[in-house]
Amino acid sequence: MPEVIAILDYGSQYTRLIARRVRELGVYAEILPPTAGPERLTGSPLKGVILSGGPASVYAEGAPTLKPEWLAQGVPVLGICYGLQLLAHSLGGKVVPGTSREYGLAEVTSRDGDPLLAGWAATEPVWMSHGDRVETLPAGFAAVATSDAGVVAAVAAPDRRIWGLQFHPEVTHTPAGTQLLKNFVFGICECKGDWDLGDYLDAMSREIREQVGDRPVISLVSGGVDSTVATALLLRALPADQIHALHIDSGLMRRSESRQVMDSLKALGLKHFHLVEAENEFLAALAGKSDPEAKRHAIGDTFIEVQAREVERLGLPSDSFLCQGTLYTDLIESGHGEHGTSASIKTHHNVGTAQIVALREAGRVVEPNKGIFKDEVRELGRKLGLAPDLVDRHPFPGPGLGIRVLGEVTREKLEILRHVDEVFVEELRKRDLYHATWQAFAVLPDARSVGVMGDFRTYEHVVALRAVQSVDGMTADCYAFPWEHLFAISRRITNEVRGVNRVVYDVSSKPPSTIEWE
Predict the structure, then answer these.
(1) Which of 61, 120, 238, 410 is deepest in the core (most CB within 10 A)?
(2) Using one digit for the tens of pLDDT, what is the confidence trace for 71-88?
């Protein structure tokens, strides 16, 4: 069994990102609920414990606590954000509401000599996200770093093998954060670093076989990286005769999308793949809906209804399993984190709708990617032998253009957005910018603007272009386009796409924004 770092999940949006960073270092990380004890790790040598951040206050009614058994293991412990506050509160310190909250970038000044901060400069930028703060430290603890706002930013109690950080070292917005995690995992916990993603592949293959047995699995394939990798993993775990790949053309796809999907399914070596034309049903379900959550629910439920009808038509058992390409980011943004403790940001169509919840509770949803991030899915795809063009394709949301057309979705708006998207991607590829961005797409806001074309006044649609750079989708920065490229792309869109007279570029980062607009 591999060495393991246990991560107690207190509901942070970044909990899984901590695990992802630790796994990047070649050490297996397992996320557990705060109610679990060390006995959950049977067979794996525990090398350290990390307490995640979270939205709660240590004084709030029902706030998650720390089981003393974890501190009794004698292994190093690292508390992050809420985890630090919980350690301080549990061990006799004092946590108070901050006079001013810290959200976003801050600078911390650290002192020399502590092993957790080895390799850090005297002053480093970090990512803060907290309201409460530690005012009084427990006995035996010392502050080893403070923020520019005077808040305790890092604490250490080496004799007790406990450390804490008020900021988030796991996000890319803390540039030297990985160094701190490396210091903890290798310097303090003395891990070997002999685990890799292939171990996840083997473990998930075993889990799928145990969950599914010999019953059929319907794999919903949108054509994106996530669902295709999930289907390829199914093929590794199960006989091909047991898998039925189903592509539902919702009418919310990009141009030529369905043809490309069917080609990719054939290349996987599937024996059973089915294409269902369902544009009219999806547009009927979306009619009159403009609220983003209502649209996501309508799309998710319609997918399940069409899938159920197709299962019946194919004569498959009613208790067949459903496979989706759900990522962990989908789960935590929908408030369905590893242990249901994270705040809901937006409902993903394949996570939070009533019918999906019912299927998940019945144990009939197979989600091979549920424990990994987008970049890890790509790496998994490479290990499974998928074509580079498919593996490196930009993410595309399961609800498709339904959430990129803001407001009510109509055929006219979809056609406009399809054309804009096609031009944008063509130009990115032509200018060798496609792989310089992590994700790039167009949005059709529910807005029109006045323009002049030739000698005539126009009142037509505004389109927004979005391009970001990211590692895992949990944080993202706007891509800094060379202006000559952005101007040229804008000119081509307004010249070629009927119904569009204005192009804007989204320069927001995540957070505070999300990557998608809805």
Answers:
(1) 238
(2) 999 999 999 999 999 999
CATH of residue 466's domain is 3.30.300.10
Residue 508's CB: how many other CB atoms inside 10 A? 15
Spot the catalytic one: 102, 124, 170, 379.
170
Q: Which of 130, 168, 173, 348 is catalytic?
A: 168
Average pLDDT over residues 248-269: 86
516 in any annotated domain: no
**Domain around 280:** 201-391
Q: Which residues pair with 488 in a beta bridge?
A: none
- Kindly report the backbone phi and psi dihedral angles of residue 283, in degrees, each rounded to the nearest multiple of 5, phi listed first: -65, -35
Residue 500 has pLDDT above 90, yes or no: yes
Domain assignment of residue 397, yes or no = no
Q: Final residue of a domain: which of 140, 161, 188?
A: 188
pLDDT-based confidence at residue 99 (cuts at 50, 70, 90)? low
Q: Are 345 and 428 part of one and the same domain?
A: no
Last residue within a domain, chosen from 188, 221, 241: 188
Please identify which of the residues 81, 189, 191, 323 carries the catalytic annotation: 81
Residue 19 counted as domain residue? yes
Alpha-carbon distance 288 to 284, whole Å? 9
Q: What is the pLDDT of residues 413-470, one digit of tens each?
A: 999 999 999 999 999 999 999 999 999 999 999 999 998 877 688 899 999 999 999 8
Question: Is 323 among the catalytic positions?
Answer: no
Q: Assess whether 168 carries a catalytic annotation.
A: yes
* Annotation says 426 is catalytic: no
Residue 434, both tokens: 């496609």
Q: Is 248 helix (H, G, I), strand (E, B) or coil?
A: strand
What is residue 321's three-state secondary structure? strand
- The CATH number of whichever domain residue 147 belongs to comes to 3.40.50.880
Inside any domain, residue 399: no
Say which residues have a Cβ less than 8 Å from residue 419's Cβ, sequence separation at least 6: 255, 496, 497
Is residue 310 pLDDT above 60, yes or no?
yes
Compute the distance between CA of residue 419 and CA of residue 403 in angstroms, rounded to an integer.
16
pTM for this prediction: 0.69
Does residue 306 share a domain with residue 232? yes
Residues 6 or more apart from 302 whose CB is under 8 A from it? Answer: 250, 278, 281, 282, 285
Segments of 158-222 assigned E as strands: 162-165, 217-220
Number of domains the chain is built from? 3
d(CA 289, CA 301): 14
What's the Cα-to-Cα distance from 416 to each of 101, 220, 282, 493, rounded to whole Å?
A: 43, 27, 18, 10
Do 14 and 157 lie in one domain? The reply is yes
